[in-house]
Design a protein that fits this description.
about 200 residues; mainly alpha; Four Helix Bundle (Hemerythrin (Met), subunit A); two-stranded parallel sheet
C-alpha cells in the first residue's frame, strides 16, 4: 500500500487543487471577468471560516509530506494504529476518488455561478440542475468525502483534526450561504430547500 500511496497522494492533490481550484478559478474568471475567490478577511463568521479554509489544505499537504518522508517523520503525527487496516485504506481511496468526481461535476454544473465563498457584489444564477437536484451542497459533500477518505487512508491526530474542523467550518459556511441565497432568491430558494436535502 505504501508504494501505491507514494504515487496516489501527490497525483490526487495535484488533480484536486489543479482542477478544482486553479483551473476552475481561471475558467470562471475568463468567462465572467470576475474573481471567484470570495473568502473575506473580516472578523465575522465568514472571516473565521475563510482563515481556516486557507490553513486546512496546507495541513493536508503537510500530512502527505511527512508520510512520504518516512516512518520517523510520519510518527510525529501520532498515527492511530487501530484504524490502520488495508480495507479501510481502500475505502479511503475510493471515497477520495468519488469526492473528486463529485466536486468537478458540481463545479461544471454551476458554471459561471461557481464561487469560493459568498459573492455579495455580483448576481449569480440559481443552479438547481444536475447534482443540485439531489443535494443543496454537492461540492461540500465532495469535500467532506475527500477529507473522510484521507483520514481513513492516513489515520492520525492531524487528519482527525482536519476532519473535525472541516465538519464544523462547512456547517458555518453553509449557514452563511443559505442566508445569502434566501435573501437573493426568496421564495424560489425556500421552495428548493423544502424539496432538496441540505446534504444528500
Amino acid at each position: 500500500m505504501h508504494d501505491l500511496l507514494t504515487l496516489f497522494l501527490p497525483l490526487y492533490f495535484l488533480l484536486f487543487f489543479g482542477l478544482a481550484f486553479l483551473w476552475r478559478s481561471w475558467r470562471t474568471y475568463r468567462n465572467t471577468g470576475i474573481n471567484p475567490y470570495r473568502l473575506p478577511g473580516n472578523p465575522g463568521p465568514e472571516g473565521v471560516t475563510s482563515r481556516y479554509f486557507r490553513l486546512l489544505p496546507v495541513a493536508s499537504l503537510l500530512v502527505m509530506a511527512l508520510y512520504l518522508a518516512g516512518e520517523d517523520y510520519y510518527a510525529l503525527l501520532a498515527p492511530i494504529n487501530w484504524l490502520q487496516h488495508r480495507p479501510l485504506q481502500w475505502l479511503g481511496l475510493v471515497l477520495m476518488g468519488i469526492a473528486l468526481a463529485v466536486v468537478l461535476a458540481a463545479q461544471a454544473q454551476m458554471g459561471a455561478s461557481w464561487r469560493i465563498g459568498v459573492d455579495h457584489d455580483n448576481d449569480t444564477a440559481f443552479v438547481q440542475r444536475g447534482l443540485f437536484r439531489y443535494s443543496r451542497n454537492p461540492i461540500f459533500v465532495g469535500i467532506l468525502l475527500s477529507v473522510l477518505g484521507y483520514f481513513l487512508l492516513l489515520p492520525n491526530a492531524l487528519t482527525l483534526l482536519i476532519l473535525a474542523l472541516d465538519l464544523a467550518l462547512i456547517q458555518v459556511q453553509v449557514s452563511v450561504e443559505e442566508e445569502h441565497l434566501a435573501a437573493r432568491h426568496g421564495q424560489t430558494y425556500a421552495r428548493y430547500c423544502r424539496e432538496v436535502r441540505r446534504w444528500c
